[in-house]
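Long-time lurker. I teach an intro course on protein structure, and each term I like to show students one example going from raw sequence to a predicted 3D structure in C-alpha cell notation. This year I'd like something fresh instead of my usual example. Would anyone be willing to generate the C-alpha cells for the chain below so I can use it in lecture? Attribution to the forum is fine with me.
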Amino acid sequence: MADSDGQERTEAPTPKRQQEARDKGQIARSKELATVTMLVVGALAMMAFGDTLAGALLKFMARMFTLTREEIFDFNALLTLCVSAVSLIIWPLLIILLVLFFAGIVGSIGLGGISWSMGAASPKFNKLNPLSGLKRMIGMQSLMELVKSILKVILVGGVAFWMIKSSLPDLFEINREVFPQNLFHALDVLLNFVLVICCSLLLVVAIDVPYQMWQHNEQLKMTKQEIKDEYKETEGKPEVKGRIRMLQREAAQRRMMAEVPTADVIITNPEHFSVALRYDPKLDGAPVVVAKGVDHMAMKIREVANEHKIDIVPAPPLARALYHTTELEQQIPDGLFAAVAQVLAYVFQLKEHRKGRGRRPTVKGRDFEPPADMRYD
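-- Reply from a regular --
Happy to contribute to a lecture. Here you go:
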C-alpha cells in the first residue's frame, strides 16, 4: 500500500505506534474466536447441566398438564404454582447463562486483551462515505470473510452429514425406547452433534486468529519517513537537544561555581587545571571535590577563590590526578589521601602563620606528588 508521499509501508510498527493504536481501540480481534468459544462452552455447559434443566422442564410441563379445575380458576394458586415451577428451572438456566457470559468475555479478549478506549466508541463519520463502503466490500477483508463463510458451511455440512451417518443405529434405537428415556436419549445425541460441530469450527479459528494478527500488523506498518519523524518527535531535534545539553551544562557550572566558596583549598596546574577541595571532619570521611575545571573554567574557579580568600596551591601533578580520577561531590581516591593531606596541612599551617602563631611553611620540590600509578602527565 503506497503512502501519500510515494513510500511503501514496509517497516514494522514501533512500540509507540502500537500503543497509540491501542489507545484508539485499534487492536487485533477475532469474531470467530469469540463465537466459537461461546458455542463450544455452551455445548459443554448444556451437557453438564442439560439433564437437570430437562428434568426441571419435564416436571414443570407435567404439573401444568395436571391442573385441577379449582387451581385453574384460583389466581393465587396459579401464581404459587408458577413461582415453584420457575424456581425449578431458574438455577440450572442461570448457571448455563453465567457460563456463556464468561465464555463470551474470554472469547472476546482472547486476542488483543482488554482495551478501554473512547476513540473506539466515538462515531466515525468516514464510514458513511459510500466509496469507503465499496472499498470494504471488494477488499481483502471481504474476500477473507467470504472464504471463512464458505469454509464454515463446508465444515458444518460435512461434519453434520458424517455425524448423522455414523449415528443412524443410535437414532433408530430412539424409536424403540419409552418415554421419557427416549427424550433424554435424543437430547444426548443432539448435544453430541452440537459439540462436535462446534469443535469443527476451531479449524476456522485456527485460520482466522493468525490472519487477524497479520492484518493488524500490516495496517500499522510504517514508512521509513514515519520512523524518522517519530524518532525526531520522541528524541527531539538535534539542534534542540544540543541547546538543552548546553543549558544543562551551564546550570551545572553555575551550581558548581556556587560551591567554590565552601572549599578549603584550590589545587592548580597554573596553566590549565583547577580543583576545589572541601574537608570538614564532622561531615566528610575524606576530602571532597566541590568544583573542577580546565582552561577558562579553571580561571573562573581561581577568580572566585580570590574573591573569598581561599588559598590556591600550585601542584600540577596532583591537580591533574584529582581532575581525572574524581567526579564532583565525590571523595578523593584512597591513593591520593597522602598528597592531599600534605596540602591541607600546608594550608592549615599557612593560616596559623597569618594569625601570627607560627612560621610560614615551606614547600619542597617533591611535596604534594601523587603516586606514580595515579599520575596524568
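Some talking points for your students: The mean pLDDT is 81. Residues 117 and 299 are 59 Å apart (CA to CA).
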